[in-house]
Write a structure and sequence with these properties.
Number of helices of chain A: 7
InterPro entries (chains A, B): cNMP-bd_dom, cNMP-bd_dom_sf, Env_Response_Regulators, HTH_CRP, RmlC-like_jellyroll, Tscrpt_reg_HTH_Crp-type_CS, WH-like_DNA-bd_sf, WH_DNA-bd_sf
Oligomer: homodimer
Order of helices and strands of chain A: EEHEEEEEEEEHHHEHHEEH
Organism (chains A, B): Tabrizicola soli
Number of domains of chain A: 2
Protein name (chains A, B): Transcriptional regulator FnrL
Radius of gyration of chain A: 19 Å
Mean pLDDT of chain A: 83
Pfam families (chains A, B): cNMP_binding, HTH_Crp_2
Strand order of the largest sheet of chain A: 3-10-5-8
CATH topology of the largest domain in chain A: Jelly Rolls
Largest sheet of chain A: 4 strands, antiparallel
Low-confidence stretches of chain A: 1-31, 240-245
Strand content of chain A: 15-25%
CATH class of the largest domain in chain A: Mainly Beta
Keywords (chains A, B): DNA-binding, Transcription, Transcription regulation
Helix content of chain A: 25-40%
CATH superfamily of the largest domain in chain A: Jelly Rolls
Chain lengths: 245, 245
DNA sequence: AAGTCGCCTTGACGCAAATCAATTTGGGAG
DNA sequence: CTCCCAAATTGATTTGCGTCAAGGCGACTT
């Protein structure tokens, strides 16, 4: 029997899911057919508002979504960047704790929450896999905390570029090649929200890294990295652990 | 049969565990007797070094431990504060990603990792409960990210005090009384590492909050809060969600 | 072609927090 | 009690990043 929960290719899903997939011929999962559905969102659209009732969980199929938190006076901090295969939602909690916004056009594969929860309760592997993913996210969040709390603006930018490069590489299963290049999926403002900076500082530091030859730009969204080790050094990373999220 | 995994009082544990407990008369858990043990650590002692092989998981029984990350040049960021009942370790990963240090004297209740992992694989409830705890921690980490990225020094201090007050209240199951007071379990330097500040700034902001009547100090580790709402306002918290960690 | 709009860059200036540098406090040992 | 020393406070100064402001660069529309 086919492994039915981890990295499964669904019939009509463009990517291999890390989450539960309904297309597998397992009895207990068959009924999921009825509780699985797709939703599309346009760039800029809000997928979930913080505080909203959430009756589904799901994973990103394509596009990029972001988790953000906003203070009353408008200060905003991104607290999660959701790439394809990332999981959204919380079994066991009924309201969303953060805003989820589509950064690019997004397709999500959703499962109604209640049946998903019973599935978790009955299928140890699913809960286990979900636990593993959540622990990975927690590790990533903690790396991110070091970035926010202690790194300089320049280090933050270098870190962000290497994080995106690393995740993109992981997604396409290719190892770091000689001269790798990355498309930044975020505006300067979104990068600023990610890094706890202002957009002006982001722009300045990117210019500085360009001037110093750490990166080169084609357009203002595409970055080439001539020397990845140089970039990592600028990022102040000792841990080169290729963590997801 | 007694509920055997969540909030159980162990025979010889001083507190009610949120994690798995070996003292319950359940067949599948009986063997855990042999794989559960206690370890004590003195204040300041390192429990686990980042990168070390970790062959156990466990939960804090008494005392306070902290999870920290350090850059080569010595900049340090706390990324987790472990109070009694908090879980340490990662089923599914063999090396520790962060330093764990005993902030006060600490007693930990440990389980050898391998048998614990098989337990998780075989007992859905355990994985489920662990997932729930990890998701709570992730939510807390994300609140923390907002703090690190966007709050001012004064807001950070006010947030820290209210977080500690909230957690202490949760631990003792008492609701916020009129004039609540908190023992800060951290030195100024540890607070600074928690908040992404320097110890001087921490000291200055505590003095400022005292001068403005938001808090009063008895000694320099004990804080009284005359008006909790005032403090929360200073903290810039809209979400008053009583999250753990 | 000209106009508009979103996004980005660059400059000038100010301020919050870091850094550097003394003291002061207070708890524990003798 | 007095000494000692880590922890905390407070002051003076510097600086990195935020803020405010002006202008540039494509990509669309008309």
């Amino acid at each position: 029997m086919q492994d039915h929960f981890v990295h499964v290719q669904c019939g009509d899903c463009p990517i291999r899911h890390r989450a539960v997939c309904a297309r597998c011929d397992t009895d207990e999962l068959a009924e999921l057919e009825q509780i699985k559905y797709y939703r599309s969102f346009q760039a800029g659209q809000t997928i979930i508002w913080s505080g909203d009732r959430m009756d589904f969980v799901g994973s990103v199929v394509s596009g990029i979504a972001s988790l953000t938190q906003t203070m009353e006076d408008g200060r905003r901090q991104m607290v999660g960047l959701l790439l394809p295969s990332d999981f959204v939602g919380r079994p066991g909690r009924s309201t969303a704790a953060f805003d989820v916004t589509a950064t690019t056009d997004v397709v999500m594969c959703c499962f109604r929450k209640k049946p998903f929860e019973t599935l978790i309760a009955e299928t140890p592997h699913v809960a286990q896999r979900l636990l593993e993913m959540t622990l990975d996210e927690l590790d990533a969040a903690r790396e991110w905390m070091l970035l926010l709390g202690r790194k300089t603006a320049r280090e933050k930018i270098a870190s962000l570029i290497s994080i995106i490069a690393r995740r993109e590489a992981a997604l396409h299963k290719k190892k770091a090649s000689g001269n790798l290049s990355v498309d930044l999926p975020l505006t300067r403002e979104e990068m600023a929200d990610y890094l706890g900076l202002t957009l002006e500082t982001v722009s300045r530091q990117i210019s500085a890294l360009k001037k110093d030859g750490v990166i080169t730009l084609e357009g203002n969204r595409h970055v080439s990295i001539p020397d990845i080790d140089r970039l990592l050094e600028e990022a102040g990373d000792d841990t080169d652990g290729g963590l997801p999220v």
